[in-house]
Amino acid sequence: MHEDLFLATNRLIFFMLLAFGLSAIAARGLAGIATHVGLMDMPGGRKQHDAPVPVIGGIAMFFGFAAAALGSGLVVGPTLALIAALASWWSAASRTTCTTSRRAANSSSSSSPRYS
Prior knowledge:
Blueprint: H1 2-37, E1 40-41, E2 53-54, H2 57-72, H3 78-111
Helix pairs in contact: 1-2
């Protein structure tokens, strides 16, 4: 019984370290892409940094966690199907929201004049 607990603990630690490592690698790799795309936090106001900083940490952490969770073998069958369905729904919902907010922004800007 203690051997099973020991192996489970080691497996958990391994996949936590894997998630950390993949997140760190993804953050470094995505930093260059973030610069080209414009995902940067500009200094100013109450911010402490002096140079633009890429804001891709959340994306990198999600990638590391998702890769480690899928690699662990714990996310299989119905759970994997549920995650895929939620990702598909979220993707469709975000496209609808973006389209709706763009239409609202375009209609409000054309109906009311801007004053300089």
